[in-house]
Amino acid sequence: MRGFYIGRFQPYHNGHHRMVEEIASEVDELVLGIGSAGDSHSPRNPFTAGERIMMVNKAVSDFDITTYAVPIEDLDRNSVWVSHVQSMSPAFEVAYSNNPLVIQLFKEAGVEVRQSPMFNREVLEGTEVRQRMIEDRDWESLVPDAVADVVHEIGGIERIQHITDTDRSERTPSNASDDSNPC
User: Is 51 left (phi over 0), alpha (psi -120 to 50) or beta?
Assistant: First the structure.
């Protein structure tokens, strides 16, 4: 049986890793959907899909399960999202998620959905990991060693610190809230 688990993995952290470990005990193969694959270089999504694929592939290599990491770009039409995911992924029989919308969409499409307990959710969440990266606090203890290696290899800490930094003297009230414009 093949399972599917989607996440933004910004970055892939120990909570994701525990979830994959749990899923690996239930399925023969696992598809890891790299959500929001088209987004990068922003405070919420600092890493590219390719970088996140590297993180995931290196981190799950210790598990005795065949995995496929596939990029899944956002689609702003929830009613067709599951068919979009299925078109981008190897076929799967069961989806894993704790996200209420994702669960609802898969159920409506007739896909079995399984949930798992969250692991130390107060700390093991991407927002906390990214905030610690920005503030130069310990973040490495929250991710698998392989992920820390990838983040260092790609200059991820410098990137997230730069993209979250602002030069207040050059920002005017008219553009102060427009963080989406790269210029």
Answer: alpha
Residue in the structure block whose two tokens are 């983040």: 151
The DSSP string of 103-153 is HHHHHHTT-EEE----SSTTTSSHHHHHHHHHTT---GGGS-HHHHHHHHH
CB 6 within 8 A of CB 13: no
Q: Identify the pLDDT of residue 120.
A: 73
User: Is the CB of residue 96 less than 8 Å from the CB of residue 5?
Assistant: yes
| Nearest to 88, CA basis, from 18, 34, 164, 25 | 34
Inter-residue contact 6 to 49 (CB < 8 Å): no
The amino acid at residue 159 is R
Give me 12's structure tokens: 């892939």
Give the model's pLDDT for residue 170: 43
- The 10s digit of each residue's pLDDT in 92-119 is 999 999 899 999 999 999 999 999 776 6
Domains annotated on the chain, with CATH: 1-154 (3.40.50.620)
pLDDT tens, position by position, 27-56: 999 999 999 999 999 999 999 999 999 999
Give me the phi and psi of 5, to 5 degrees please.
-135, 120
**Whether 124 contacts 14, CB under 8 Å:** yes
